[in-house]
Amino acid sequence: MKRAWIPNLLTFGNLTCGFVSIVFSGVSSYDRFFGAALLVLAAALLDGMDGQVARWLKTESVLGKELDSLADCVTFGVAPGYLAYRAYLSGMHVWFGNFGLDAGILLAAVFPICAAYRLARFNVRSSPGSFSGLPSPAAAVLVVLGVIFFLNTGFHTALFAVLYCVVSFLMVSTITYSKPQATVFRRLRGVKLLGLIILVALLLVFFRFGIVLIFVALYAASGIVGFIIHLIEQRRY
């Protein structure tokens, strides 16, 4: 087997997780929704690995880049949008006489549309040291974990819909986000990298996915805070 297929297999694993997540979301039960969210998290790990593996093996290619974008559009666009619709947004009917339109379908479609645009923009215009707009895997993790944590807490549907749209529009915004793989992971080698992996594993064991939601939410907020600070500095000078 050619070495180039190793990162591609990770990408196909990402796509498979996204497809199965959609299938799980089709059954309205908390366990299935939880499984769907878990698959998106697993896909995010695979998505973080395929590019790194391609660089380590020196097998980066245009084909691999296109496959990655197509897989990401399904897993980090369609799958979170469908989960959000099934768990929260369905049944938001708008009536026109005797005809009822499920506005939740249109609202749920906002996320995959923004994800598709974000991924296409990244392919034609990207910076080696930062992201323009919230990366789609981070946005997807926010949505699916938000569904899981808020579903049984009485969290209002309208408020979830607002947060859902905010996360969607952060993807297509021009707010700058740092690249953890360019700032952190490239500096960690050997024992230090192993120590980070063990620390993350321990945090997951003790805090489960709540710690993941907190970290990703802080990452999303960091871009907004940086954007506000930049605007203030511009007005000063």
Output the radius of gyration.
19 Å
How is the largest sheet built, in terms of strand order? 1-2
Distance from first to last alpha carbon:
58 Å
**Total tally of structural domains:** 1
How large is the share of residues in beta strands?
5-15%
Task: Detail the topology: elements first, then pairings.
Blueprint: H1 5-25, H2 30-57, H3 62-89, E1 93-96, E2 99-102, H4 103-124, E3 130-132, H5 136-150, H6 157-172, E4 176-178, H7 180-185, H8 191-207, H9 210-236
Antiparallel strand pairs: 1-2, 3-4
Helix pairs in contact: 1-2, 1-3, 2-3, 2-5, 3-4, 3-5, 4-6, 5-6, 5-9
Structure description:
This protein is mainly alpha-helical and 237 residues long. It has a single domain, classed as Four Helix Bundle (Hemerythrin (Met), subunit A). Helix content is 76%, strand content 6%. It is built from nine helices and four strands. The strands form two sheets. Strands 1-2 form a two-stranded antiparallel ribbon. The chain has a two-stranded antiparallel sheet with strand order 3-4. A hairpin with a 2-residue loop joins strand 1 and strand 2. Helix 3 packs antiparallel against helix 4. The chain is globular. The mean pLDDT is 83.
